């Protein structure tokens, strides 16, 4: 599955504990990543600087749903379910 245009849920909902260019301490959950462009696409998608955790997250119908809000709801649920 390809990413939906104008979504960016996977760059917003989950927390990222590893450094991201421009966010050396990672990213808290439900926060826009500084690498999320105005087009809601990752600006470092093909870069080796992209965190491995981000690269491992693959778009799927279950995760992405039919809308950005469905994707946000699912990813926020996963974030809460996996929190320490």
TrEMBL record:
Q: Name one Pfam family in it.
A: CxxCxxCC
InterPro entries from the entry?
A: Puta_zinc/iron-chelating_dom, UPF0153_domain
**What is the protein's given name?**
YkgJ family cysteine cluster protein
Q: Which organism is it from?
A: Buttiauxella warmboldiae
């Amino acid at each position: 599955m390809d990413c939906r245009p104008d979504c960016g849920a996977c760059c917003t909902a989950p927390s990222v504990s590893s450094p991201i260019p421009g966010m050396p301490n990672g990213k808290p959950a439900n926060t826009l990543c500084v690498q999320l462009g105005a087009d809601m696409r990752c600006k470092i998608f093909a870069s080796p600087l992209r965190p491995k955790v981000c690269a491992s997250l693959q778009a799927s119908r279950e995760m992405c749903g039919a809308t950005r809000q469905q994707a946000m709801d699912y990813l926020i649920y996963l974030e809460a379910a996996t929190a320490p």
